[in-house]
């Protein structure tokens, strides 16, 4: 029986568009953004930020050097938010319903700029921030590792006292899903931006 559901953020809760993000960083001045940004796993200073190896200020300084000018927090944040195409309020309502029956968690490769938005009243039409839909958020830049590294899964499982056989992991990244299976989690890999509610309902029924 499933007692816990772990959701990825970008691509599952909030659909993402790499192309829009590339355009946003190019507008910022990063001319080679297309070679630096990835849908699932970043590289260079982008990866260092999401792994917590550099803080937001250091990232902003180094990105500014690449862009050839000094960058401000808000414009850097707006470029990161280029990844996101909006949040389906019906999915947020569904999460509220799920939380009456399951413990809900987020396991996300992310950074302070994205979370500054997600954990604010700007996140949802109702003004409810992301963290109020979940029991706890497990964020790569705070833990120090990104999916699909073993350490981030191990940390979450131990910290939340999860029993893998009682836990469903929902992520749109195939490599992340495969790693979840290695830890004994039940898994579901929806497409980025898909309305996955009916499929999830069927999976939960099959595992009841």
Automatic annotation (TrEMBL):
It holds the Pfam family Hydrolase. InterPro entries: HAD-like_sf, HAD-SF_hydro_IA, HAD_sf, PGP-like_dom2. It comes from the Bacteria. Transmembrane segments: none annotated. SUPFAM superfamilies: HAD-like. This is HAD family phosphatase.
